[in-house]
Amino acid sequence: MRYLTVLIATLIASPVLAKSFDRPIPQAQSATAEFWYALACLALIASMIAVHRLVSRR
Predict the structure, then answer these.
(1) What DSSP designation does 13 have?
(2) Which residues contact 37 (CB under 8 A, 6 or more apart)?
(3) Whether this model's pTM surpasses 0.85
(4) Residue 36: which of 26, 44, 25 has the closest Cα?
């Protein structure tokens, strides 16, 4: 009975039954995404300048 259990467990866990991994294909960035990224970058730079001015006053 023990050998039968080992045989069944081996057959169930067989790599033959496993699916192959399909690598996802990256999509190109849209113009809208590039616009929002540029806007976020400018907002980050503006906030860093504001923090710099606030800290240098004190």
Answers:
(1) T
(2) 29
(3) no
(4) 44
For residues 20 and 33, what is the distance between their CA atoms, to the nearest angstrom? Answer: 32
Q: How far apart are CA 9 and CA 2, in angstroms?
A: 11
**Interval 12-27: pLDDT, tens:** 776 665 677 788 888 8
Letter string b/e over residues 14-49, b meaning 16 or more CB atoms within 10 A of that residue's CB: eeeeeeeeeeeeeeeeeeeeeeeeeeeeeeeeeeee
Tokens at 8, concatenated: 């069944």
